[in-house]
Amino acid sequence: MADEPLDFGEDPFERAFGQLRGPVHWPSLTGEEARSRLGELQEWVHALVRRFAIEPRVIPPCWDRHSALVEILSALRDHERADYADTASPTAALDFIRALHDAQLILADHASKTQCSVSGHRDDLVVRWPTSEVRAAQRD
């Protein structure tokens, strides 16, 4: 019929969530791969924060400068993609809501360590472990 919209084969799920693939192991990515993946993740995180009115103490504006927050949010996005796939269980949406709740607790715990806020960023406190030579010298 002439009144029907043209179908160009674009799947609405894929348009919204992207191609399903395995989880991202962030430490294995090259710098360029990480930047590309982070760009994809940023859009999703901004929409998530708006959709669920997530407070900055849970996801601070500088979340993308903290590797733990990046990895947690990436895992949550993967969970949502799987939960809303055509092959997902009819109850999978609630699984995502539970995962979101759990992730918010973990995110808030990590974000509290830096105390980043809407007005400022603080780097992660990384404690350097002594080298094996230093530990050996300390034993002597």
Task: Write a concise synopsis of the structure shown.
The protein is mainly alpha-helical.
Protein described:
- By secondary structure, this protein is mainly alpha-helical.
- It has 5 helices and no strands.
- α2 packs across α3 and α3 runs antiparallel to α4.
- The model has no long low-confidence stretch (mean pLDDT 83).
- The termini are far apart.
- It has one domain.
- 54% of the residues lie in helices and 0% in strands.
Proportion of residues in β-strands: under 5%
CA-atom Rg in angstroms: 20 Å
Biggest pleated-sheet summary: none
Global structural class: mainly alpha
Order of helices and strands: HHHHH
Helical amount among residues, as a percent range? 40-55%
Total number of β-strand segments?
A: 0
The number of domains = 1
Low-confidence stretches: none
What is the fold's blueprint, element by element?
Blueprint: H1 12-17, H2 31-52, H3 67-83, H4 92-114, H5 132-139
Helix pairs in contact: 2-3, 3-4
Supply database-style keywords:
single chain, 140 residues, mainly alpha, 5 helices, 0% strand, elongated
